[in-house]
Structure formats: structure tokens, C-alpha cells
Amino acid sequence: MNVEHKVGxxxxxxAGLWMTFINDSMAxxxxxxxxxxxTNEDVKTIVNKSLELxxxxxxxIRNIFExxxxxxxxxxxxxxxxxxxxxLFFDLFPLSYVYGMSRIGLVNYxxxxxxxxxxxxxxxxxxxxxxxxxxxxxxxxxxxxxxxYDRPPMIPYPDHIEFVRKKEAxxxxxxxxxxxxxxxxxSEMFFNIERNYFGLVLLNGFIQVTKDKEIQKYLMxxxxxxxxQIRFLNDTLIKEDLMGSIMVNSEVSTSTVSPFSDRLxxxxxxxxxxxxxxxxxxxxxxxxxxxxxxxxxxxxxxxLQYGKEGTEILIDRGWLxxxxxxxxRKELAKI
Length: 335
Known about the structure:
Layout: H1 11-37, H2 41-68, H3 93-115, H4 119-145, H5 167-171, H6 183-209, H7 213-239, H8 262-286, H9 290-317, H10 329-332
Helix pairs in contact: 1-2, 2-4, 3-4, 6-7, 6-8, 7-9, 8-9
């Protein structure tokens, strides 16, 4: 006879559910703004599907936490979005947004699914992963159908396999002629350029509507950091005669009325900064040319410093919702 033992949520499961609740409650606000103004029916269908998935996730996590007697996070709500504000972006950006955020979701849900054990939580994150993959495929298919999906650089197919014979040639020391970029390095460079262009569009919009000078300066610093990464990656590709155009499939409107609270904007930028560390870290892990390795190491430090500054602003404003944490045993024991 199979006996299921009732176990509580592990710290990993709590972390995954808590983070997903916060992020999806934010996504609901953003999707509502997009849908309020969208006129392109194809894009509208995809954004609406994204909204329904986020609402489903939030509802299911709320039910899990309530059954466990666990506090429901505050997250974000209708008070963080102004549907009366004019559209901040034109019709194609919501599609770029769904595409970009679903790529992030695939990475996060893949990790979470492999890290949780309780059956109902595994089922939940497996469903999140599958539905996000479907959403990603929908967005790519629409990009392809309207002819604006920008592909990574193409290379001639090799006619044979090779093994590295000289480590010095493969690692490309500073004073030696650098070997050509391999496909692992090329892929990471392309998608980090794309990710930073996506961030630039968001930052341009937010800078335009944010009235708080401290937050506006922080966003402008983020824009400069994104541009710096793009310049390095683009220049490296251009020197290799490999650069194709990266299309920014969106435009920022002329609105100066913010559709989102400063709290949501700052938390979203912090989320994207966190993902930036992850993606640059992955690029670092597959790169062996020393010029790339050195630059990625510097970029990671700069992103971390930028994130620290954003976190400090959130804390100063009382806008940073603290993740659940372990008890302080020393404090409990009055040590």
C-alpha cells in the first residue's frame, strides 16, 4: 500500500513559490497596461495568454500558502498600475516583452522544477515550465510570421570535426592572435546583446515617465551600463566580421505619464539586473577566449554594484519585500 506522508514546504520550495508570486503579481500589472491599449489582435492574444498564466500562478500559490498557514506575500496589485495613463510603448513592444520574460521564465522554472521534491510543488512548477514554453513558442512564431525575428549570426558548416591540439591557441592569450569565436561564445554574445537592447527600451520608457530624481538617475545609470555591454559585444562581433543587425522591435511613445508605480519600476529593474548576472555568468562559463572572460568578469562586478544601489533605494523607501528567512537562533537563545 502506498502511503503519502504529509510534509511541510522546504526552504527551496518556499523560495520558489514566494519569488514566483512576487514576479507574477508584477507581470499582471504590466500585462493589464499593455492590454488596455493594444490594437494588434495577434499580439493582444499572446499578452492575454500571458496575463491568464500569471493570474493562475498567483491564485495557485495563494491556495498553497493558505493551506500551509503561510503568510501571503504583498507583491503587486492594481494600486501599482494606472490604466488611465497613455500607452508607454507601441504595439510591438508587448510582444518583445512576452518573448524576453518567457525566456527568463524558462530558465527559472527549469531550475525550480529540478530543485523541488514535494509532489504538488513539482506538478505546479512543471506546469509553469510547460505553459511558459508554449508562450515562448507563440511569441517566436509571431515574430517569424511578421518577419521581424532577428537571428543569431550564421556561420558556414564545418566539413569535419576537430580536437584542440594547442591550449595556447585555444585560450588566446592577450599578446597572441585571437582564434575565431566559437558557436558557444557567439550564441551567448548575441543573446546578451538582445537582452540589453530589451532592457534599454524599458529603461528609456521608465526614464521618460519617472518624476523622482533619485530613481531617474538610477535608471539612467542602468541605461549607461546596458549600452556599455552592447558596445563591447557589438565591437567584438564587428571585428570578427560576424555582426548582423539586432532589431529593437518596439518604440517608446511620447507619454510622460507613468502607468506604473515607482515601486514596481524599481523592482522590475532589480529583477532584470539579477537575471543579467545569471546570463553573463553563463556566458562566462562557456567562454575560453581571455578577452571575453576578462570583460565578463568586469561586467558581473558592475551589474552587482548596480543591483546593490537599487536594493539600497528600495530599502530606504520601504519598498523591498523581504523573503522568508530562517530563525535567528542566537537571538532566540538571548546569546
